[in-house]
Amino acid sequence: MSGDNGESMPMTQGISRRTALLGLAGGVTGLSMPSIRRARAAIPIRFVMSWYAQAEFGGFYEALAKGYYASEGLDVQIEAASPQMNVPQLLLAGRADFITGYDFQVLSAVASGIPLVAVASTFQHDQQGLMTHDGITSPEQLRGHPILIASSSHATFWPWLKEKYGFDDSQAARYTFNLQPFFADPSAAVQAYASSEIWDARQRGVPVRFFQFAGLGYPPYGAPIVTTRQKIAQQGDTVGRFVKASLMGWRDYMNDPAMGNALIQQANNRMTPEHLAFGLSALRDAGALLSADTAVRGLGTMTAERWKATRDFMVAHKLLAESADWQAAFTTTYVDALRIMPS
Question: Rounded to whole angstroms, how far apart are CA atoms 261 and 257?
């Protein structure tokens, strides 16, 4: 999610229930050695995120730190991903039980016969957008300007941006998650998250603006929790317990992130308290976890109407075949049963 600003990538490590207990020592109240023994006997779960540990994944770390996974009989290992990793492939190869993904990715996979399934949505809106230098006041002004995007973005938001704003493929420059080219060129724009890349710009003292795609009509959810159809068929109850604990963690993290942030810093040596506070503030300001649906149905909710809107969007931009079985890409069974309300 966050682009690197030209320094080395962060050192990361997987965080499990045992690591959390040992690393936080007495900082996590109410947990003891019997908790560790229960975790060892619990169902092992490997959860792989789509990026390094940071505020955008805080709810999962909060759930781990507070023992919500352990209370559900799960021994969860949280692992970060690098830009080079094919995270869905880990899931399909049985090397992960759950991942955070993207709606477009899941729909495209299902259309190709790959049995991925979204079981809850972390964010109610995609948190991605364009970061520009301060002189740009609207996306239309970027015609003819270099726009740094990842290779995967050519199959997600780029066709839409081209159509909506009259951009051209010649503008699309490769984004390698190094912000140096953006900083060096005052005419450039770059794909970004308000909770991540904008922090890097502020650290450099570079004034920027941010145009979030969701506010411009981009329909997907953000960072859905994804598993496989086989996992649901064979361990449906485990899936439900993982979703429940994760959403409880997100509910708590948005109110008081201290315990989750302690684990994030343990997993990612470049995350400072100031950076984490900035990231959480950006998520709160964006209402990332909230929508009219969550006010009624609770956190993590998904609806067929929203998924159909994304399906229609992809079909319209020739990113998905009209015949694709889009309804196989998600299930609302788990979130519909929970009603974990924002607080």
Answer: 6
Distance CA 220, CA 310 (A): 6
Rounded Cα–Cα distance for residues 340 and 241 (Å): 13
Query: Do 208 and 106 touch, CB atoms closer than 8 A?
Result: no
Residue 178 bridge partners (DSSP): 4
Taking CA 148 as the corner, what is the angle to CA 47 and CA 169, rounded to the nearest 5 degrees?
115
Give the tens place of pLDDT for each residue, 153-164: 999 999 999 999
Q: What is the DSSP pairing of strand 208-212 with strand 128-133?
A: antiparallel
Dump the DSSP string for 42-80. Answer: SEEEEEE-SSSSSGGGHHHHHHHHTTHHHHTTEEEEEE-
Closest CA to 315 of 111, 133, 115: 111
In Å, what is the CA distance from 181 to each residue of 4, 239, 254?
11, 42, 33
- The per-residue pLDDT for range 194-235, each reduced to its tens digit, is 999 999 999 999 999 999 999 999 999 999 999 999 999 999
CA dist 276 and 270 (Å) reads: 10
Strands 15-16 and 74-79: antiparallel
